[in-house]
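W.,

You were right to be curious about this one. When I first looked at the sequence I had no strong expectations either way, so I just let the prediction run and decided to look at it fresh. Below is the sequence, 343 residues in total, followed by the output.
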Amino acid sequence: MRRHGALMRAQETDTEYERFCEFNGGMWRGKCRSVLVDALRKEASRDPQCDGRRYTSCVKASKAGVDEALSWDDEDNETVVSLKLPPGAVTGDFDGSFSAEHAAHNLVSASAPTFAAEAGLAVADDERVRVVASYDGGGSLARVAYLDEVRIGANARVNGAAVADVGDVFALAGDWKGDATIRKPGRGAVNVLKQDLELHTDGDRLFRALTVYDAAGDAVQTLESFGDVATASLDADFEFVVFRDVGCCLVLSRGAYVLAPLSIERDKAFYIEAGVFITEPEADLPGGQQLPISIRGAVPDENGDVEPDFSESKRFLSRSVRLYSPDRTLASVTTSYHQLYNS
């Protein structure tokens, strides 16, 4: 979460990776929400093996790299996932949010041939949501997992915003206006621009339009797509939307989502997007008035005076997009933070 306090601390930190270590290191308690995806049939179902399980994660993050041990509560504290990443494999943001690519977090067996893209999004000073899209050895999307975590010893949802209760496509609807930072591997931030995300639905289809602006504030590109909302099974606690025109699917579960290709094809660029919807506390509560607004172009009022256009909404959206080249090498990571303007 892009909190004012986090920004001030980040300005005192040498690198975004050091901020990643500062925020993410330590012991975390979490609960897994997991969805199995059948990419061929374009279907999704609850994952009975991982969904609903609680766990403890120990993260050691330093200049030498990241070492994580994750153990389920019902496995006698046996480490089921041991994740090791070099510093260069992690792309960090100034608030401690990050993204990475690895093969360990299929959450069942670290030895399985899996390509996994993870986004860890800070939603409060001591809370984070990790979103993991895992692909099997053939390049098909197999599992989407959401890891809701609270730092051990912290008071949850006291000093920051909380994940919004977004459980269906109707709750996504609106114009989300925000600012985005583009980072290149090994180069850090290379560009800051504005991005607007428009979402609308009739319950059967989801319309999505992403508009990108240049430095002057002029729209340079709008990417539109329509998705079909699939009928969920009786035990499902998620929404599954298939964008057939672009070969992607969106899996939404309790305020967090993944938008990812159903399959990764050879010699074809692709992206994997993760997002978390956040509700800021009221101003008189702890954590209130922490999140930045994204002011848009000035509009003249009835007297011809120019006033900036901004929203007073308490609803926000944090996004992370990993863009890959056709050979599966990471081309860029775009992080953006949006505020709801019109629902």
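Here's what jumped out at me. Residues 16-24 form the longest helix (9 residues). And, maybe more interesting for your project: Confidence is low (pLDDT under 50) at residues 1-13, 284-288.

Coffee later to discuss?

I.
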